[in-house]
Automatic annotation (TrEMBL):
Top-rank taxon: Bacteria
Pfam families, A to Z: Pyr_redox_2 (PF07992), Reductase_C (PF14759)
UniProt organism field: Phytohabitans aurantiacus
Keywords of this entry: FAD, Flavoprotein, Oxidoreductase
Cofactor(s) required for function per UniProt: FAD
Residue span, FAD/NAD(P)-binding domain: 4-300
Domain Reductase C-terminal: 319-403
SUPFAM superfamilies xrefs: FAD/NAD(P)-binding domain, FAD/NAD-linked reductases, dimerisation (C-terminal) domain
Protein name, as recorded: Pyridine nucleotide-disulfide oxidoreductase
Length: 406
């Protein structure tokens, strides 16, 4: 019996292995991961682990013994280096190989590197894995000077944790606002104000020229010649999907591994899930690739079911969340720049208690609830309905979301 092999022991891969067993598959399952850790969840790495509110043992998908108990051959510290689709063979580091029956690629992303002089100095850190989070945690002491490069979700979450731990934080961002391309100017300002209210300094429209220091970073020099003192620098300028082995194997790769709505590549024995999957979305009618926890959580199992021959059409709406200080937010839907013509706000932006809707031709494309809870289902329904709605009612907190005229 050739095994079902999963490459990437992250959330999507771990959940896929679990689903294979839950669905009754009793053939061999091998889960390969190049980290030394069994699968774990990454959201706490920039939140609870840094704040000390999440215990290290709580980040794991399962306890280490769970895999053997479920007859899943978890091989940590093992890297897949090449795929030969013709012979169903996977090459591993160290010259070993594995023959597979069916293969799931769930290799996730890596942090984008900042190509400036000094980026290799000690104390210049990115955040993708547990070890990174622990290292950053030790840098967040009272009075330390932290420079965060990139005002994306991870950069802002680290900034929030650092402020909570008493560090002085400056965030350097090339754009004129944080998260501008995701949220647009009006909603992006909510996050600027939130962080300023908590003592974060921003340098917008700023470029890092180089990191300064001997051995260890001591400052960051910007393109306008200004110099920021830094005991540590967190680089949070986005992630890059790990698609190299797929591309080298001749699979179609274009902003991720191209898969159909059943998460299958053009090779009927190879699937992709999680951050690397650029999947056709049957509801949105377009390809979508997202780097979201919920997508890894659900697309891994969907791919596993498809590997077992079940008919799968993965049509979950993109969903992500963040927690920063006392602000909690959830975002549902898909509204890339240029896709919407209005942002409709229900509630009080100033109080940071509202729902924002991105709409096009009065249809709701996405909704973001900030410190407003239990509204996912109606928001999702508004998007799924896909019909024009009454925008005045959408903005009116006295009209229940379910009752908005459509
Ligand atoms: P990963 O979790 O990246 O796992 C892939 C695994 O495959 C890794 O262990 C990798 O080392 C391994 N691998 C790669 N190549 C190979 C190879 N060739 N051979 C063997 N193993 C390989 N999302 C949200 O929605 N909300 C949040 O608040 C949020 N916070 C986050 C905070 C941080 C700090 C980070 C880094 C991410 C956060 N995310 C969040 C995103 C979310 O964690 C990811 O979308 C999710 O982890 C993707 O899961 P994955 O299984 O596809 O990939």
């Amino acid at each position: 019996h050739r095994p079902f092999v999963i490459v990437g022991a992250g959330l999507a891969g771990g959940r896929a292995a679990q689903t294979l067993r839950e669905a009754g598959h009793d053939g061999p399952v091998i889960l390969i991961g190049d980290e030394t850790e069994p699968p774990y969840e990454r959201p706490p790495l920039s939140k609870g682990l840094l704040l000390g509110t999440t215990a290290p043992e709580d980040v794991y998908l399962h306890q280490a013994g769970w895999y053997a108990q479920h007859d899943i051959d978890l091989r940590t510290g093992t890297r897949a280096v090449a795929i030969d689709p013709a012979s169903h063979r996977l090459e591993l580091g160290g010259g070993r190989h594995l023959d597979y029956d069916r293969l799931l690629l769930a290799t996730g992303s890596r942090a984008r590197a900042l190509p400036v002089p000094g980026a290799d100095l000690d104390g210049v850190l990115s955040l993708r894995n547990l070890a990174h989070s622990y290292r950053i945690g030790t840098a967040l002491s009272e009075g330390a000077h932290l420079v965060v490069v990139g005002a994306g979700w991870i950069g802002l979450e680290v900034a929030a944790a650092a402020r909570a731990r008493g560090a002085a934080v400056t965030v350097v961002e090339t754009a004129a606002a944080p998260l501008r391309h995701v949220l647009g100017d009006e909603i992006a300002a909510v996050f600027t104000d939130l962080h300023r209210d908590h003592g974060v300094r921003f340098r917008f429209g700023a470029q890092v020229r180089r990191m300064m220091g001997t051995g260890r970073v001591s400052a960051v020099e910007l393109a306008d010649d200004s110099v920021l003192t830094a005991d540590a620098v967190i680089v949070g300028i986005g992630a890059q999907p790990n698609t190299e082995i797929a591309a080298e194997a001749g699979l179609a790769v274009d902003n991720g591994v191209l898969v159909d709505d059943g998460l299958c590549t053009a090779d009927p024995a190879i699937w992709a899930a999680g951050d690397i999957a650029n999947a056709y979305h049957p509801l949105l009618g377009t390809r979508v690739r997202v780097e979201h926890w919920a997508h890894a959580l659900h697309s891994g199992p969907a791919a596993a079911r498809a590997m077992l021959g079940q008919t799968v059409s993965y049509d979950r709406l993109p969903y992500f969340y963040t927690d920063q200080y006392d602000l909690g937010m959830e975002y549902t839907g898909h509204a890339p720049p240029g896709s919407y013509d209005r942002v409709v706000v229900r509630g009080d932006i100033g109080k940071r208690e509202f729902i924002a809707f991105w709409t096009a031709g009065r249809r709701v494309l996405a909704g973001m609830n900030v410190n407003v809870w239990d509204v996912n289902e109606p928001i999702e329904q508004l998007i799924r309905d896909g019909v024009p709605v009454d925008l005045a009612e959408l903005a009116d907190p006295d009209v229940a979301l379910d009752d908005v005229t459509r």
